[in-house]
Amino acid sequence: MYQFYQRYFSATKQVSWLARQATAQRLEVLNYLMQWEVTKPTSEH
């Protein structure tokens, strides 16, 4: 039973780390797109 919990916690720890990485990546992409949206109208004029 202890081994099961150990495996379960290590698995969820990995998943949460991956989720954090994915969130950080999404925020980076969003930030990049926001900057592009801001600079786009000024480059058109």
UniProtKB/TrEMBL annotation:
One of its GO terms (biological process) is negative regulation of D-glucose import. InterPro entries: SgrT. This is Glucose uptake inhibitor SgrT.
